[in-house]
Amino acid sequence: MTNKPIKLSGSSVNVWFGSKQVLKNINVEFPRNQVTALIGPSGCGKSTLLRSFNRMHDLSPDARIEGEFLLEQQNLYEKGLSVTEVRRRIGMVFQKANPFPKSIYENINYGLKINDVPKNERSEIIENALKESYIWDEVKDELQKPATRLSGGQQQRLCIARAVALRPEVILMDEPCSALDPLSTLKIEELIVKLKKDYTIVIVTHNMQQAQRIADKTVFMYLGEVIEAGDTHTIFHNPKNELTGNYVKGHFG
Amino acid sequence: MMRKITPVIEWGTLLLSTGMVCFFMVVILWDLISKGAPSLSWEFVSTLPRAGMTKGGILPAIIGTVLLTMITALVSVPFGISCAIYLNEYATDNWLTRTIRASIRNLSGVPSIIYGLFGLALFVQGLQMGTSMLSAGFTLGLLSLPYVIITTEEALRRIPASTREAALAVGATQFESIRDVVMPTALPGILTGVVLTLSRAAGETAPILFTGVAFYINNPAGFLNQEFMALPYHLYMLSTQHQAIEQVRPLAYGTALVLIIVVFLLNLTAFYIRYKHSKND
């Protein structure tokens, strides 16, 4: 497997919530145009790590974050760098589909509006984003319908469209399929694999099969530490660490 | 045997309680409507009182109550909603926030007559506004403030964190996420709380007693710097203080019915907002 250049990385990452340390000296790298899966038992800090990259902890007063987070050469926590700029370059899709309580069109338009995309370019971008997320054919005739009336799987693809409309470089996904039925999950997985052509994707998942189906790289975390990271195939079939082996075989979780 | 009887007793007790509540409501409404309806007429709601209140209508009291409610809204709604946004969205959970929140909850339990005295001291005397529509409206505004804050905060708290994060994740600032996503989503809940609070304020007597209400004014209603008539106080005077109590009793019932109708209309607005929202969801 060829080694792609590193797009996003975190080194010596430590995160505390109050007095509890939830991430301990983490070093991770996410290669460009690849899907990297973060796996590990509940509460091991996968989501916390993911959300550190687009600075979603900024508004939690009890969160304390240490370490260096780099998007290519850009330090994401640099003084003077606006958090909205970080989030434009690093998009996010959440565990539970969270469309705005607005129309389908307005759901994507909103991000463009607040990022000052000129008005006359927006409808084309919206159409492309919906096509890119494989939901265009299902919604093209009812763009003014409230997004909340879509099915769960459609809502989640709309949320992906909302993220890609801003042309981010990285898309963070926090268990995007955990609330979906198998068929919707399959559609999202296909979508993720297609999206990696243009984006770098980091996905948190509890589903071992999913990680093997879509991820090029896998990072196994346990109790706030990275235990092992590498090619997905190696992690699942030739893990160096016994803990990793036990986890991917489903002995604990 | 006991297992068969117990559910019947439980069910019976609950039904009886519900029945009693409904019974009294029906009795009150029936009493009001049967005795008040005969005095309702276009003339009653559109003309001034005549012949020492024994004849004529209650137009100035209706205008007074409506204007008073509007001033109450102007005072309590902007400050109340802003305060709730600060408490729920911005304030960190520390002793100061907790103290503010506890104070607001305590304020909502203060008897309304105390607000009346406070209004008298602050607006009427302290700020030299005299007994006037403005003094009374400000007093009712202060009375309504804690309710507006509490109901708005409830409505904001019901918006899940994921909705806020959705806006933040596409690059919205915290303020933008509140303005564009959180507030529109919470609006039906906020409006319902506001309308119910105002309908309660519209029926208050004690806070306006010392601050501006009058039994009778002979100039047209609607001057903010003058005393005014209001439905609840008018009702109180007609039913207890008038020198020809028996003669004005039908008018008192008519006034009560109009007051109930005004409050009912406000409540209906709240239900309508709720209903429309639940359909759009």
UniProtKB/TrEMBL annotation, chain A:
InterPro entries, sorted: AAA+_ATPase, ABC_transporter-like_ATP-bd, ABC_transporter-like_CS, P-loop_NTPase, PstB-like
Pfam family, one: ABC_tran
Gene Ontology MF, one: phosphate transmembrane transporter activity
One CC-aspect GO term: membrane
Superkingdom per UniProt: Bacteria
Gene3D superfamilies associated with the record: P-loop containing nucleotide triphosphate hydrolases
Domain ABC transporter stretches: 6-248
Keyword annotations of the record: ATP-binding, Nucleotide-binding, Phosphate transport, Transport
Protein name as catalogued: Phosphate ABC transporter ATP-binding protein
Species for this entry: Pedobacter hiemivivus
Taxonomic lineage: Bacteria, Pseudomonadati, Bacteroidota, Sphingobacteriia, Sphingobacteriales
